[in-house]
Amino acid sequence: MAVYTHLAAERLAELIDAYDVGSLVSAKGIAEGVSNSNWLIETTGSDGQGARFILTMYERRIETSDLPFFLGLLDHLAAHGCPVPRTIHDRDGALWRTIDGKAVALIEYLPGVSIDHPTPAQARSVGQALARIHHAVADFPQSRTQTLGLAGWDRTINDCGAEALATIDPELPDLAFGELSWLAGHWPGGLPHGVVHCDLFPDNVLMLGDKVSGLIDFYFAASDFFAYDLAVTHAAWCFERGGATFRTDVSEALLAGYQAERPLSSVERDALPVLARGACMRFISSRADDWLNTPADALVTRKDPMDFARRLQFYAAHGDELFAQGA
Amino acid sequence: MAVYTHLAAERLAELIDAYDVGSLVSAKGIAEGVSNSNWLIETTGSDGQGARFILTMYERRIETSDLPFFLGLLDHLAAHGCPVPRTIHDRDGALWRTIDGKAVALIEYLPGVSIDHPTPAQARSVGQALARIHHAVADFPQSRTQTLGLAGWDRTINDCGAEALATIDPELPDLAFGELSWLAGHWPGGLPHGVVHCDLFPDNVLMLGDKVSGLIDFYFAASDFFAYDLAVTHAAWCFERGGATFRTDVSEALLAGYQAERPLSSVERDALPVLARGACMRFISSRADDWLNTPADALVTRKDPMDFARRLQFYAAHGDELFAQGA
């Protein structure tokens, strides 16, 4: 949550002039994104009526070679009627430009707020929006290898090591290594797949009332099972109080909303308990890595890996029953 | 530069409902202000046409008992045609509300960007806007004691101590203690005074092209000499490269712009070289204090006190000649 780079207004005005969006009126650095700097930009608009955009500067983690994929995906989904922000192309048609050696993209601004405590109606709308994306990617011509899959979690946890993991929580090493073994023996194959979001937490969803107005931050998107994306979303939305409380009403609404648009096959439904445990492992591994390698007082707030350890234990105990009923 | 508090969208929507501004459409935490958290808020507007506001949450340094002064000052200046953001009153007429134990105010959103490298035309506009404020406060009925005056600088520098100051720069202790003695013997009395901004750096001025569109962040405003406020603004605008380069063209334009609206008396003009050295001492003292008491990796970027030591040395060497010609 930060703006990592100071961008002089004079440089920004020049940049905006490379797009057919009118001239710069206002620019506010916004506290969103952990890998990027973002500004909320107001311009006079190409029609003089005023317009707003998000300017993203790619600071870390994201490779410029991945930008045609990430930005092309936004355009593809927007063209298919999904509520995602279009990429604004510059006057030469380019998806991104370079300023002071860093890649920047101008992105459509979408209304809506990110909510903390979803209602069932909101969860239903999220499920529907997710399923529509899974339909819309059918003819998306690009793909990106999933680097944060089972092999990636295993590598991260092993790089952390049992000793360091134990400094986070004494139970974490056994839980993580045990779970990785179990997942390796149970991970499904051959499920319907395509390019999926993989990080659809509430802060990546904009809502107006009960309806999704925007899905944002596709920078973890990769080729994976649709049902895994649903499992990630389920793990991200259906718990409160750090994973300690399961929201049955939100779970049922999310799964019903998804299936109203894209009914799960029986194979997918049977795989959900395993996929949900994998989704938890994905965030346990990255959060443990961040926890051990981020100074306690750094700009980025560390997230507790144990939040997802609790979710994992819930899925291990109740997943079969839960997804058999709800999905 | 940070958002210190997470404010759930649900709480924010309730808060916005206390104002006659329509309902919440969007909220983005913005990276502005060092003592406050700020959000750029979009609502449906009281007329359904959409509207934008800045929501400020007072986190540190600012006492709630000072809010009638700060927020009343904005209203007074806006009513007198100065380009400052009005305070939006809630449905009961209150200037601020309390949320989760913290005071928050909804403030008018003004267009414009903060520039890094002013042109003379921009500096002229800043001088004019400052002088208009000095006229407009004539009938402002409130006042606030200047706590960051000569006595305050002296206390801060003595609290830091010579030993600690030397860790910033070996020359700083002699410079600071010597200057405080000199200022104590030369500080003027009886100059025209009123409530002044006292912190009009480029990042507190919004500009559209060559014109000031907004003066913001009045949270250091206090009763002091008008000419001191002009001296602070001069020290803040007329140097580049950390105080190493003096911009004669910007200086002349700033002083001319100011005097086009409010000509200085000969007594004020004669006092400017001393006031400018005082303005430098004000920022040397607060920056030294921050430097010594802020962890190097904290959220707030530390500013180098030596930037203003260089400015001070410039004013000591050239102030008499400079202000005799330019003012």
Automatic annotation (TrEMBL), chains A, B:
SUPFAM superfamilies cross-referenced by the UniProt entry: Protein kinase-like (PK-like)
EC number, UniProt record: 2.7.1.39
PANTHER family: AMINOGLYCOSIDE PHOSPHOTRANSFERASE DOMAIN-CONTAINING PROTEIN, AMINOGLYCOSIDE PHOSPHOTRANSFERASE DOMAIN-CONTAINING PROTEIN-RELATED
Catalysed reaction equations from the record: L-homoserine + ATP = O-phospho-L-homoserine + ADP + H(+)
CDD domains: HomoserineK_II (cd05153)
Key words, A-Z: Amino-acid biosynthesis, ATP-binding, Kinase, Nucleotide-binding, Threonine biosynthesis, Transferase
Pathways involved: Amino-acid biosynthesis; L-threonine biosynthesis; L-threonine from L-aspartate: step 4/5
Gene Ontology terms for molecular function: homoserine kinase activity
A Pfam entry, by short name: APH
Protein's name in the database: Homoserine kinase
Domain Aminoglycoside phosphotransferase: 27-264
Enzyme's top EC category: transferase
InterPro entries according to UniProt: Aminoglycoside_PTrfase, Homoserine_kinase_II, Kinase-like_dom_sf, Pseudomonas-type_ThrB
Keyword Nucleotide-binding: yes
Originating species: Altererythrobacter litoralis
Similarity comment: family membership: Belongs to the pseudomonas-type ThrB family.
